[in-house]
Amino acid sequence: MPSRKTYATLAAVALAAGTIAVATSGVAGAGTATHGTPRPDRQLAFDRTATYPVFQNRPAGEDPATPTVAEISTVSSDGRTLIYTDALARRIGFLDISDADRPRGLGTLALTELGDAEDEPTSVAVVGQYVLVVVNTSASFTDPSGRLDVISLSNRRRVTSFDLGGQPDSITISHDHRYAAIAIENERDEEATPAGGEEGDLPQAPAGFVQLVDLGGNSPDRWRTRAVPLTGPNGAALPALTAAGIAAPTDPEPEYVSINGRNQLAVTLQENNGVVLVDVPTGRIDKVFSTGTATVRGIDTENDGALDPAGSITDTPREPDAVAWVDDRYLATANEGDWRGGTRGWSIFDSRTGKVAWDAGNGFEQLAVRYGFANDDRADNKGTEPEGVAIAEFDGVRYAFVGSERSNFVAVYDLSRPTAPVFRQVLPATNGPEGLLPIPSRGLLAVSSEEDDASVGVRASVTLYRLGRSTPAFPSIVSAPERGGAGPIGWGALGALSAVPGKSHLLYSVTDAAYQPSRILTIDPTSTPAVVDHALTVRAADGTPVGYDAEGIFARPQGGFWLAVEGATGAGNQLVRLDRDGVTRQVVPVPAEVAAGLAKQGFEGVTATTDPRGHEVVWAALQREVAGDPTGIVRLGRYDVTAGSWSWFGYRLGSTSTPGDWIGLSEVTVVGNRLAVIERDKLNGPAATVKRIYTVELPRAAATPGPLRVLPKTLAYDVLPDLRATHGWTQEKLEGLTVAGDGQVYAVTDNDAVQDATGETVFLRLGSDKRVFKGR
């Protein structure tokens, strides 16, 4: 077997191969974030320690399905109490993170106790013993208002409040704790149409501004606010904004704020595509610059089911959201975009000149592809949407953390050279990572996520990561560059596995209906992480690419493949035989009498045996019961290829008492004289219960007519502990299982193409077949 590579070495080699290319317009110092190879003595990496679903921190008596989020977070001065905003539920939450492996809920503070039931927290920060909560109290877009509540961290009582004079967004604290700065956005109404414009256009009065807070003395009653207007007294545009080419300068809308060590404030005007620099002690505007446009090539720009990097965006405004100072000169922006733009990456600007010093180009977007987070549903609308950026120093190294709102990951870069970021790793998050909170004093990073939908098991969470020298558990699988192409192989929705005949260490998988056309992927599991290193397009008999909802794959020793195709209706379920080039050579429909009893859950796995005489028998698993069959009995189909005939055996599913849940099969594979199947529930996260591998006998003959013969099952392996050991959101769809030619057992989860799912793929090495199946 080839020697195993470490994650860091593999990442460095793959990235150095030029798979993250850049194409930007007018960018000085544009780079690929691949500079240099990590030194062995500096191989520190962040590893996930815990994922805390914030619905578990809800008030007593509240329905667990009630939407509740963690949006922006901060931490106490000792680094042990995390405070987060919950805009949906109109409250702030508190977590004890003293033990980073086991965060503990400390309850919430409802804004109804401080003001009105409709008050909305937008940001939060800590100064000493006080929590500063920024609150939006606006009655409407045209009548914006807000306040700053100062809360005692020890007893959660309000000490004082300040009127902010407008609708606030973010807050930041200066390094010396002498000042706070708050972006007063006074955001636009996306359904309003200004004179001479289109719906949602700027300008829309009133204009936004910046509110500074002088934190003089230790007592909040001595604090004072002062406004920094970004328009003239009569609402006219400031000359500095006009000269910089700021879009709609009469309606600046501050979004995010950051203060450097010289007490210089950077504030992004996202909709206006600009940055304003303010001297905080005096409130004087130092500089204004446009963040410009970029042309980015080598990205997916079509929502068509294909992960195709042939698209581009041209002269697109960056429209940055979050901003963070790299040092006292350079600052970084996350270019999420809003109504006119978004360049799918992040940039570093020289504050002295206002020029781009470095830009990610297509690099951030290609990280999503390489790590299986590509969200094709967003390909035509701002892609990964990098929304958050944070910068902090850990163990003498300055790091940048950049969060993808739509692909649910955080990318980590070494910023030892401020204008030459070095990509280090990707961290998986739950859906909609919004708040990025480095806690260097404890070697931690906290990421808070804002998406919450109990109906699909997607719950907002706070995830903790610790910096250390061990190899991180994520990623467990990545992709290599496309052969003959510039970008990485697009992959996701790995719902099936098969051994590769004659290649004892390789595996096959296949994409399901989430992506079109279907592609058979070759996986090399001898590296850590495993690597998708080849893709074969599946084709119809006439050679044209075809899309199947392939839920199972088996590579035939005699060449070619069997696919188990799940239909949208019962009649759409079929076995498809491909030749070695991926061309369809045979289609075997499910018998009509079985199809009539199937709903949308049909074929979910396929395997086969061939005896020494060449007699081939294909086995396929149905996920759910056929109507008319006994309750809890699902079918295993036996297809005799020579005879062209089906027969059926029964398998007894476990039961569940969770409302809305069900139990079903999601894979089948031959193990010696047994069939191994995956039996799983519909649940994920902390609710996940059944993720198991069972075996049944492998019948040597067709089933006899009459009632289904139920094959007794034996539990071989409970996969749930392995899934929980990732310390992330426990994945629902454990769907792939196989035994490689060398006897090693592998399993994989289907990431649902990042739709109603975190998008994380867990590739599991379960050990030898003798260990997993105890010699069977």
UniProtKB/TrEMBL annotation:
<protein>
    <recommendedName>
        <fullName>Alkaline phosphatase</fullName>
    </recommendedName>
</protein>
<dbReference type="InterPro" id="IPR055188">
    <property type="entry name" value="Choice_anch_I"/>
</dbReference>
<dbReference type="InterPro" id="IPR011044">
    <property type="entry name" value="Quino_amine_DH_bsu"/>
</dbReference>
<feature type="signal peptide">
    <location>
        <begin position="1"/>
        <end position="23"/>
    </location>
</feature>
<dbReference type="InterPro" id="IPR015943">
    <property type="entry name" value="WD40/YVTN_repeat-like_dom_sf"/>
</dbReference>
<dbReference type="InterPro" id="IPR027372">
    <property type="entry name" value="Phytase-like_dom"/>
</dbReference>
<feature type="domain" description="Choice-of-anchor I">
    <location>
        <begin position="342"/>
        <end position="424"/>
    </location>
</feature>
<keyword id="KW-0732">Signal</keyword>
<dbReference type="Pfam" id="PF13449">
    <property type="entry name" value="Phytase-like"/>
</dbReference>
<feature type="domain" description="Phytase-like">
    <location>
        <begin position="490"/>
        <end position="752"/>
    </location>
</feature>
<dbReference type="Pfam" id="PF22494">
    <property type="entry name" value="choice_anch_I"/>
</dbReference>
<dbReference type="InterPro" id="IPR052956">
    <property type="entry name" value="Mesenchyme-surface_protein"/>
</dbReference>
